[in-house]
Write a structure and sequence with these properties.
alpha/beta, TIM Barrel, 11 helices, 25% helix
Length: 499
């Protein structure tokens, strides 16, 4: 597939005309670095267009802004109507072509691939308005393309993803254990978490690697929002972390850093969007200090893993399933600091959390995939699985594991979400398959369960935890035909699942 990264046209879209905008770029082999400078112009978008030789036999697959929602699939080029955030792969099953941007860019970038060419939409906005750079030069992104004389689309995508991230954070140990969300759904207590911890330790008996017990949304005084202080069912959170560690497990905890009803938060610390001031504006100095203090307090309690959630929706007002080419649909709003692009603002927030968390492991949930790479160890790649509805696990879990697995250990560890176990809901013969696939996937393995397990479930879970400790080879097979592939190659053998 012939492609010249240096041969493109560009179009600048400004909020107040174009008078002093300068676009510069440098090319080095298969990479292109793009720079933007503007003094008074308020730049919204830059469109870049390349010629691309394509035909109807080509299949394309792209990424998504944050979590996927069961929609990932290979589509024929002639039928594709979507923009692909960050990168895409095109293949005729004998050759592969990958094009995208390196992780941690300073703009939100999506691609449209058609038989007429490739368009990159470079979103430079601040909120829903043009960014006010004030003469500053921004390195927007490093574009990277690779061509492969191979039809092994999964192998090519694995190689390509590794070329996009220079600094992945990969934990040395396997990350596994319990998360209480998919059986508790927001209702738990100090004593129940201790019971859950003992269950996980029993399942992990004989394994030197300590399991985690992650406390999800349930421990704070308000449901799904701050202030991040414990409710009466939990009490002393430091004592709880200490007890989990004394039992022999590792404590983890969930937080939604931007949604907080603390009366100490003033109105000017909140983001004004759609006429409402609801969420913390992470560009305001006082908001930054408040978020930092929250994370540091949790670290001081002794938690070893932090799962931070909802920041993409809280910042931009939409779920990824509602978006196509851009990260936000609403126009006419800005952050407190109008001089930075949305991508720079998100990166600043993730870096703030990373710095405050110190040596805690971080799971990014509802975070922007390409921006948190290198700043989190674990990344929730898909929407919620379930302890109640098998279709949610099949749709969200299997789909994201199959089509984003190439990012695993290239960007971060891909967390395709939990095995949710609730009595009388999902048949064990279904959940057992999801458990089996995760145990061989080289990705994190979290289970939501109480002590109400059958002997069969205990046996299967213990075996899965032991299997999980070793490295395996794995790839989906029927990825062109199936959004939830049922055929997988695992350690050289074909395994067929009945989803």
């Amino acid at each position: 597939m012939n492609f010249n990264i240096d041969a493109f046209s560009k179009k600048i879209i400004s909020e107040n005309g174009i008078s002093d905008t300068v676009i510069n770029y440098t090319v080095n082999g298969n990479t292109l670095d793009l720079y933007l400078t503007a003094n008074n112009d308020k730049i919204r978008f830059i469109e870049l267009d390349w010629a691309f030789e394509a035909n109807d036999d080509i299949y394309v697959l792209g990424d998504v802004w944050e979590r996927s929602y069961g929609e990932l699939e290979f589509t024929r080029l002639c039928n594709n109507t979507r923009y692909f955030p960050w990168y895409f792969i095109a293949t005729d099953k004998s050759e592969c072509f990958c094009f995208g941007v390196k992780t941690q860019p300073n703009a939100f970038i999506s691609f449209k691939c058609t038989a007429n060419g490739i368009k990159a939409l470079v979103d430079c906005r601040n909120g829903g308005c043009g960014v006010e750079l004030g003469g500053r030069t921004v390195h927007l992104a490093t574009f990277v393309f690779k061509s492969y004389d191979s039809g092994d689309v999964y192998g090519c995508l694995c190689d390509y993803c590794k070329s996009l991230c220079d600094n992945p954070l990969i934990p040395e140990e396997r990350i596994y254990g319990g998360n209480n969300w998919y059986y508790a759904y927001g209702k738990s207590s100090y004593d129940e978490i201790i019971t859950d911890t003992k269950v996980q330790l029993g399942l992990a008996k004989g394994i030197d690697n300590k399991p985690f017990e992650v406390i999800d949304d349930c421990w704070q005084i308000n449901s799904c929002e701050g202030p991040w202080i414990p409710n009466e069912k939990f009490g002393d959170m430091k004592k709880l972390a200490d007890e989990i560690k004394e039992l022999g497990a590792r404590p983890g905890i969930w937080i939604r850093p931007l949604h907080n009803r603390d009366a100490a938060i003033t109105e000017d610390m909140r983001l004004l969007r759609s006429g409402k001031r609801q969420y913390l504006d992470p560009t305001h100095p006082d908001s930054k200090a408040y978020i930092k203090a929250d994370i540091e307090r949790i670290k001081d309690w002794g938690y070893e893993l932090l799962k931070h959630d909802f920041t993409t929706a809280d910042l931009f007002g939409s779920w990824g399933s509602e978006l196509n080419e851009t990260i936000t649909k609403a126009d006419g709003w800005s952050f407190y600091d109008k001089t930075k692009t949305n991508a720079e603002i998100v990166l600043d927030l993730y870096r703030l959390i990373r710095d405050a968390a110190g040596d805690m492991l971080i799971i990014g949930c509802n975070t922007v995939s390409h921006l948190c790479a290198g700043l989190v160890e674990l990344y929730r790649t898909g929407n919620d699985t379930s302890g109640r509805e098998w279709d949610a696990t099949r749709k969200n879990g299997v789909n994201t594991l199959a089509f984003r697995l190439a990012q695993n250990e290239a960007f971060y560890m891909c967390d395709a979400d939990c095995v949710g176990i609730l009595k009388d809901y999902i048949p064990w013969e279904k959940n057992k398959q999801w458990l089996h696939l995760l145990s061989y996937s080289n990705t994190p393995l979290f289970v939501s369960c109480t002590d109400n397990l059958t002997d069969e479930q205990k046996k299967d879970l213990s075996l899965a935890y032991k299997t999980f400790q070793s490295k395996h080879t794995i790839k989906p097979i029927d990825i062109y035909e199936n959004r939830t592939p049922s055929q997988w190659e695992i350690d050289g053998e074909t395994v067929i699942y009945s989803w």
